Structure formats: C-alpha cells, structure tokens
Amino acid sequence: MPHLSVRDVCASYGGEPVLRGVTLEADRGEVVSLIGPSGSGKSTLLRVLIGLTRATAGEVQVAGEAIDYGHKAKLRALRRRMAIVFQQYNLFQNMTVLQNVTLAPVKVHGVARAEADARAFALLDKVGLAEKASAYPAELSGGQQQRVAIARALACDPEILLLDEVTSALDPERVGEVLDTVRTLAGGGITLLLVSHEMGFVREISTRVVMMDQGRVVEEGSPDGIFLSPQQDRTRSFVGSIIRH
Amino acid sequence: MPPDLSGQLAALLTWSNAEFLVGALARTLAMTVIGCSLGFAAGFAIAVLRRTRAAWLAPARWAALLFVETFRRVPFLVTLILALFATQQIAPELSLLGIATVAATLAATAYLSEIVGAGLGAVPDLQREGAEALNLSAWQTFWLVVLPQSWRVILPPAAAFMVMFVKDTSLASHLGVVELTFSGKILINRGFSPVLGFGAVLILYFLISWPLGRLAARLETILAPSQRS
C-alpha cells in the first residue's frame, strides 16, 4: 500500500483551474520530486495535501486512509503526520529559533518544555544551527532560516514532509547548505515530496520524479528515466531547457 | 513686558487660578485618556471582528464598517453635538464632561480600529499559513504569532493619534466643558489679557503633548529593531 496516494485531485485558484486531475503515489521512505514549469500546479498540490487549499475533486489517502479535509479533527490529525516547508521561509519573526521549533510541540501537542527543548536542540544540531537557538529569524541568513524551518517541520515527527521550492528564494551560495540538510533526511524513513528546480539535486536524491504541466502529471518515472530518456515531448523540452541553462 | 501685563501675571499666579487651570487640564486629559483607552479597546475588538470570515458574523462586520466609516468622516465637533443630543434622550443626567468623553470614545474607536486593523493586516499571510500548517488554532495563531508582530505597526501611530487627539478635545469647549481652551476664554472674561490667558493654555497643552510625543517617538525606536527582515 502506498504511503501517500493522490487520486484525480482538482483545485482552482481565483476561479481558474490549477490542478486538473492529479494522480500520484509515494511509498514509505520514498523521495518523490515534482518538476515542471512555473504555474504547473506543483506548489498548489502541496498546499492541497497539507490542507491550506481545498481540492474541488479527488481523494488523498495517507497509509490507505482517505483524508477528510472538511473535518477539523481529521485535518489536525493529518497535520500531525505531515509537515510542510515553504519557499518563503516563514519562521515566526517574533520568536527565537528555539521558540519556533518548540512552539507546536509545546502549544499543540502538550510536550513538556524541557523535553521539547532537548528535542529541538537535537534537530537544530542536525541542521547545524544549535548555536543559533536563541537568535531571531531576522538575524539569520536565508539559508539558515530555511534550515530552521526544516527543523521546525520535523519537530512533531511527521511521516511525510512536503518541501515547496525550499531553495528558490535563496542566494545561490546558500542553496547548497539547505540541499545538504534535505539530503540527510532522505533514506531516513520519512517520505519526502519535494518541488524543486534544482535538477541536479532532484536527479541525485529522488526515487521517483513526477513531471507536471498545466495542472496534470505529464510523466513519471525514475530519475534516470525522466532525465535521460523521457517518453513525452513536454518532458523532453522542459528537461532539455533546464539542463541547457 | 508692559507694567500692566506684569501686574496681571502676578494676579494670574494665584492658588485659585492654578486650581482652576489644573482642573481644566484634568478634564482635557480625562477626555483624551479615557476616550483613547476605551477607544483602543473597542477599536481593537472591531478590528478583530472585521478580520473574521465566519458567515454568521457578516451583519456584525457590516455594522462595524458602517460605524467606523461614519465616525471617521464626521467632524469631531459634529460627533460632540450628536453625543449631546443622543445622551439627552438616553442618559439625561450625564455631565457635559461625560458626554464629551462619550464622543471622544466614539471618534477614537473609529480611528484606532483602523490603526489596529492596519497593524494586524501588516503581518504576512505566510505567517498565518505556517501556524495553520503546524496545527495552531485560530486563537493561538492570533495570540502567539499575529498579535506580537502587529504591535510594532500599531503602537507608534496609535500614540501619534492620541497626541493629536489632545488638541481635538478643545472642541468640547463648544459644549461648555471647561477644558483647557474654554478655561482660556474664562480667564479673558475675568479681565486677563488674551496673551496671558491663552499663553497659560498654550504652555499647558505643550506640557501634555510634548511628553506624549516623546513617548510616541520612543515607542517607534524601541519597536523598530524587530522590524528587521
């Protein structure tokens, strides 16, 4: 049974259809990358999965269980199992790094402060920022903020982590440190669904690559399959244009 | 200073005149502080109400919008007169100072709700979505994430409004409230030169406005560091 299953999901934004029936699956521990041109619906799909945008049709299943996004308690239960990191690092500006990471465990899940702090330090250590625990987001570089955002997303032990173009808003020299952090997660049992334009990284880290265009899945396959021998013209032209640049 | 002026100055500096002016000053301050405090609380509630989405609150949101737009567009003097006639029907025993304070509260509520609303609106939606994705409740998101980031946007203009509002309360003299401006007129009626009477009033207005203005400026510098992004 796939860990995450998306079936015929449709969604609109401002009356315009953005997702026109997306179907894809991810097994537990897989790293599935969504690629495709801007506006192809990749980020919207992640927003639908975490329940920030409502699907107009289709079904999402986690571990075989259909998610009812209209049901508050069930949506909350889903968000215990699934976390997201956004393109724009949106750490809470009024809180220190440590407070950002411990907020949900303490305030939502009732974890004791000492325990949450210890866990947060372990996660910050993992992303290489334990010494920044008492800094405010504004005092960190974009790459550091994004690594904290990843630590914050991991603080509630999600089974599925959604990464929405986590390096797109960064200075080029900050991209590597964030990709390194993502690399440490892959193969660690967590299921990763990521949207990225870093094609080299996608090819290296993914177990499966999904090409999207105009709200649909054009093609999916192994990284080598998609990058070396794409079956669809659209994939070929997209991959070709990206690699040429 | 001409001899008659210096003589008048000596006559002005008596205990009873000081008492009279301090009383007037207290009334000016009461209208400002009570009006702005109640107005801030009510304006805050209105700003929060207007940001809700629930369908069943729609009539309340419309009423809030109507209230805010009305009292922001009406001159404060008209609000004062309106309050005078309205309270005569509802609470005829209310003092003139009480009526003026009601009017001050109405005006301050309308203006401060806009200031609070702008502050709440200045927090990017991404902050709310981040909180929502982490399972924070709407209340936790507001209290722990949005509000702490709004203060730096709300407080400086709110303090500036209060400084400005000190001056607006002079219009209450038209109702017969013996606040600072009216006390100046009374001093002239008692035979003091306008230069002395209103000179004293000017100094007292300055003594309120200047520290308040400094406080507003200080708030801005204290709150500014968190503006880094």
Q: Most extensive interface: pair and counts?
A: A-B, 24 and 19 residues
Query: Unreliable segments of chain B (pLDDT under 50, ≥5 consecutive)?
Result: none
**What is the fold named in CATH at topology level of chain A?**
Rossmann fold
The CATH superfamily of chain A is known as P-loop containing nucleotide triphosphate hydrolases
Q: Spell out the helices and strands of chain A N to C.
A: EEEHEEHEHHHEHEHEEHH
CATH architecture of one domain in chain B: Orthogonal Bundle
Write out the CATH superfamily name of one domain in chain B.
Answer: MetI-like
Query: How many structural domains are formed by the residues of chain A?
Result: 1
Q: Please trace the helix and strand order of chain B, writing H or E for each element.
A: HHHHHHHHH
Shape of chain B: elongated
Q: What is the top-level CATH class of one domain in chain B? A: Mainly Alpha
Q: So what's the CATH class of chain A?
A: Alpha Beta
Write up this protein:
The complex is a heterodimer of chains A (245) and B (229). Chain A contains 9 helices and 10 strands. Chain A is of the alpha/beta class and 245 residues long. Chain A has one domain: P-loop containing nucleotide triphosphate hydrolases (Rossmann fold), CATH 3.40.50.300. In chain A, the strands form 2 sheets. A 6-stranded mixed beta sheet of chain A has the order 6-7-8-3-9-10, with helices on both faces. A 4-stranded antiparallel beta sheet of chain A has the order 2-1-4-5, covered by helices on one side. The model of chain A has no long low-confidence stretch (mean pLDDT 91). Chain B is mainly α and 229 residues long. Chain B has a domain at 27-178: Orthogonal Bundle (MetI-like fold), CATH 1.10.3720.10. Helix content of chain B is 80%, strand content 0%. Chain B contains 9 helices and no strands. Chain B has helices at 3-12, 15-51, 58-73, 76-90, 96-121, 125-133, 138-168, 180-189, 194-223. In chain B, α4 packs across α5 (96-121). The radius of gyration of chain B is 22 Å and the shape is elongated. Chain A binds chain B through residues 50-52, 76, 79-80, 83-84, 86, 88, 90-94, 103-104, 107-108, 136, 138-139, 152, 156, and chain B through 124, 126-127, 129-136, 140, 144-145, 148-149, 226, 228-229.
